[in-house]
Write a structure and sequence with these properties.
Shape: globular
Largest sheet: none
Number of strands: 0
Strand content: under 5%
Helix content: over 70%
Structural class: mainly alpha
Number of helices: 5
Mean pLDDT: 91
Radius of gyration: 18 Å
């Protein structure tokens, strides 16, 4: 199923707003607590995941947002603010379906593969840069 043009615009606008909010929050927390440890990232992830939990439960229990509003807030704003919120929503959906093993496998695979991917990217660039010099 393809997304509607309005949903795509909502994700784009929300993603821009969320990314700017993340940047500002990281700068502010870095000024307060210093930048030797990623305090800002921890705060952003915790805050984004908390808001994702609130919005997703409201959407189930008491609120019927349009697909465009859901795309704006949950995919766009929170996705731009922290992709960790999407990660935790996926885990929440699996746990909600009583697929605990799948949730654990997803969490473990996501963290391990993401960290491995990061270091693989570093190695690729380092090998290309050292060859071209």
């Amino acid at each position: 199923m393809l997304a509607s043009p309005l949903s795509l615009l909502a994700v784009a606008a929300g993603g821009a707003a969320g990314s700017v909010a993340r940047y500002l929050m990281l700068m502010m927390i870095g000024q307060w607590l210093g930048s030797r440890f990623p305090y800002g990232t921890i705060v952003v992830n915790m805050l984004g995941c908390t808001v994702m939990g609130v919005l997703s439960e409201l959407a189930v229990q008491a609120w019927s947002p349009s697909p465009e509003l859901r795309a704006l807030l949950m995919v766009g704003v929170l996705g731009g603010f922290t992709t960790f919120s999407s990660f935790t929503l996926d885990i929440g959906v699996l746990v909600g379906r009583d697929e605990i093993g799948a949730a654990l496998a997803y969490a473990l695979a996501s963290v391990l593969l993401s960290v491995l991917g990061f270091f693989a990217g570093l190695l690729v660039v380092r090998s290309l840069v050292s060859v071209s010099i």
